[in-house]
Amino acid sequence: MEGLFKKLLAIAVMIFSNLGLYAQQFSADEIMKKNNRLPEPKDSYSEITLTLTDKNGNKIQRKLKSYAMKTDLGYNSYFNVTAPADIEGMKLLSIAQKGEDDQRMYLPAFGKTRKISSSGKTGKFLGSDIYFYDLEDHDLDDFTYQAIGTESWNGKNYYVIASIPKDSKAPYSKIINYVNPGDYFIYKSETYDKKGQLLKTLVVSKTKIIKNIIIPAEISYTNVKTRHSTLYYLDTIRVDSGISADIFNVKNLEE
Prior knowledge:
13-stranded antiparallel sheet
């Protein structure tokens, strides 16, 4: 009799475990939909400082101006480097498209613009720990989602959701996102390489709220393999100020 009870208990546990997995998968999609529905600006202008630190503690800085505008296909973005002098005038334009964004970079030293190819999306933007892929505007449908569970981090509990790219050319096998259940904003991400090994971490340490929009004001990127890190600091931000759509034009790169 005891053996039968144990078998029935094991079956019940298996059934409820499977139901729990189904509920988790459903909640993962819903959580990421709520994240995707967070208020966003129609356009924005910002001034940014990137501080790059190598494994020996040596630091260099880059300063740039950033413009973004929402379109029917996502966000177009434009970056213009203002310092240091040796890379001043470098520009990056991303035009949102269905699928992979069209990215082009202007190199003033050569006086020409080059297109960022699919294989070049793992290139480091200005030598930082930010890939060109990270600067694309990715859609909700570009990933499948799996609920890992909940985890306490930085004194708060978070939903932990795995985002798995559908595009085989994506540089990551998965991205683990820590979603705040209070505002559904992602405050931490871990990216894994194609072999499934942890590659980089991203932590949003400061935010600003403007017009009910949560804006990351300080982000740290750390490559755990090279021990190189990048600190993104938002010096200035303006949202919905009515910037011109003419900024997001290939011709504007070489002007």
